[in-house]
Amino acid sequence: MPAASDSRSGRLRYERLLVALRIWLVRLAFYFGRLLPVRQRVVLATAHLDHIQGNLAAIRDEVDRREPPIGLTVLAYRAQPNLIGLLRGALNALVAGYHLARARIFVVDDYFFPIYVVRPRRGTTIVQVWHACGAFKRFGLSIGDRSFGASATLTRMVRIHSNYDVCLASSEETAGCYAEAFGQPLDRFVWTLGIPRTDILLRQPQASETRQRVRQQYGLPEGRRVVLYAPTFRGDRTYDAAHPAGLDLDLLRRELGGDHSLLLRQHPFVRSRQPLDELSDFVVDVSDHPDVNELMLASDVLVTDYSSVIFEFALLGRPIVLFAPDHAAYERERGFYFDYRTEGPGPVFETSADVAGYIRASDFDAARVEAFSRRWFTVADGRAAERFVDRLVVPALDGRWAGPDSLR
Q1: What are the start-end ranges of the E strands in 192-255?
Q2: Domain identity same for 246 and 298
Q3: Domains of the chain: total
Q4: What is the rounded CA–CA span in Å between residue 274 and residue 362?
Q5: Which residue among 20, 124, 345, 406 sits deepest, i.e. has the most Cβ atoms within 10 Å of its Cβ?
Q6: 8 A C-beta contact, residue 233 and residue 270
Q7: φ, ψ for residue 127 (rounded to 5)?
Q8: Closest to 405 (Cα-Cα) out of 130, 162, 188
Q9: Which range of residues forms the domain containing residue 304?
Q10: What CA–CA distance (Å, rounded) separates 224 from 222?
Q11: Same-domain pairing of 371 and 388
Q12: Is residue 369 part of a domain?
């Protein structure tokens, strides 16, 4: 027992040391940056992937279209639990701290440590756009007492999800859930701009052209119904994420293969790949495709478990199937913001045979999908990124932005 206690004490000391070091590095670079003037520049930052996607990518593309040009910097890195990862993390802490001190607008799409350990400079606007729509799985301060939540050491030393000037949400109901998760007042949230990552789904004729291009890219025959299987990951940390077990792709091939194709989209956090050679005439691994929304456009049915892709896919009005054999355990561990079985956009199944049977029967409930979409989206018209730049970025760069109330 004493040995176990000593080991735990040692881990806690090591964790506190790492947090303290990261704080010191961010503040060192931030205070150096404060010696220089604020730049008329937008910074888009993420700390969960080595590239930006979703909302940040949509905002980047809109900014790039503007004339005169708007200065833009992208910061993207993913934590790694090894020595190289620690060294890279130290460098990224310095880089982020410096840009945080000098940017006029700093936009993030997830938890971003440097923001929480400084006092933001006057004249800088910090925006949280989050990386998903709606409110599904509990996160942030909503799960602080669970294994997936932030460590107690971190939350004692750092006021996470602080210093946001404005946060995007897809609806007022979503904003209430996010306010709890971020520990922020509801008046910091805006749900009248829309969510930039949904624009690709709703803008025509681009959406139809994207559907056709992606189906051709993966050799999906005309006349086949395309099923997108896009589950979320399992594991307490992003760096040890695993693909969920359970869905029998061979059974689905036997039951559906004649007139269906399945696109397998593993979560971006999952590094390993499933062997699919024997299923190549039915399953296409699209895990490396850069934009999941493009895959949604190419698909006719979504099968997932607890992924927030249900919100975007619902905007298309297409069938959604929830495969969740571990539903009870997942709810105990992570929890949801709504009743998973009765308030979701589609039926919940616990066996692969039931999933295959439901898809084969084609007895889909379109009204349920539409009601779900209306509940979680206040504005969805394909112009969210345009509004974000027009009503937030441009006024903030010009010194005219008057806070969240000006966006309602």
Answers
A1: 225-229
A2: yes
A3: 2
A4: 28
A5: 345
A6: yes
A7: -125, 130
A8: 188
A9: 204-376
A10: 6
A11: no
A12: yes
Task: Please indicate, yes or no, if residue 351 is contained in any of the structural domains.
Answer: yes
What does the alpha-carbon distance between residue 103 and residue 123 come to, in Å, rounded to a whole number?
9
One domain, residues 368 and 389: no
336 and 396 within one domain: no
pLDDT for 78 equals 83
Do residues 91 and 169 share a domain?
yes
Q: 5-63: per-residue pLDDT in tens?
A: 666 677 778 888 988 999 999 999 999 999 999 999 999 999 988 899 999 999 999 99
Query: Which residue type, as a one-letter code, is found at position 355?
Result: V
With H, G, I as helix, E, B as strand and everything else as coil, classify residue 404. Answer: helix
pLDDT recorded at residue 268? 60
Q: Which residue has the tokens 């220089």?
A: 36
The whole-angstrom separation of Cα 112 and Cα 76 is 11
Considering the domain architecture, whether residues 178 and 254 belong to the same structural domain is answered as no
Model confidence over 151-203: pLDDT tens digits? 777 778 888 899 999 999 999 999 999 999 999 999 999 999 999 999 999 99
Residues 6+ apart with CB under 8 A from 13: none
Contacts of 111 (CB under 8 A, 6+ apart): 47, 48, 140, 150, 160, 161
CA-CA distance, 255 to 257, in Å (whole number)? 6
Q: What is the CATH number of the domain that holds 288?
A: 3.40.50.12580
Structure tokens at 69: 């040009």
Task: Check if the beta carbon of residue 70 is closer than 8 Å to that of residue 396.
Answer: no
CATH of the domain at 127: 3.40.50.11820
Phi, psi dihedrals of residue 76, rounded to the nearest 5°: -145, 125
Q: Does the CA dihedral 95-100-105-107 come out positive or negative?
A: positive
Contact criterion met (CB below 8 Å) for 253 and 283 = yes
Do 149 and 233 belong to one domain?
no
DSSP class of residue 390 equals I
Let me know if residue 4 belongs to a domain: no
Q: What's the pTM?
A: 0.90
β-sheet bridge partners, residue 72:
42
pLDDT for res 10: 74
C-alpha to C-alpha distance for 171 and 375, rounded to whole angstroms:
8
pLDDT band at 141 (very low <50, low <70, confident <90, very high): confident
153 within domain boundaries: yes
The residues near 330 (Cβ < 8 Å, ≥ 6 apart) are 305, 306, 324
- Cβ contacts of residue 97 below 8 Å, gap of 6+? 25, 26, 27, 28, 29, 30, 33, 114, 118
